[in-house]
Description:
115 residues; mainly alpha; 5 helices
Amino acid sequence: MDEAGGNEIKAAEKPQPRWLDSAVTFRKCTALKVSFILLGLGDLLLTILAMYLGIWELNPLVRFLVHIPVLLVLIKVVIPIAVAWIMPGRLLIPSIALLGFAVIWNIREICVFWF
Length: 115
């Protein structure tokens, strides 16, 4: 066997990164998973603050859940932690972007309301 053929075999044997390596764990893609959870909590806290200040909630589900704290915590805290644990970290990137947009939107609405 020539040396070039041996290199091709060695290159083919290299393990490829797998998407599911960070699923069902917080040990891999920890920063993405923590970002997802913290942005969700930030969105929840800003939503509660906005409703306390008298700003109308556009989402009817959240508007209903604010009056039932146990369900609110279940849906806005427990479920996102479970999702972050189960999902591969890379698949959370679009959700992180949307949650970041929601947090910025909430901050903007509170500032507009106050000033």
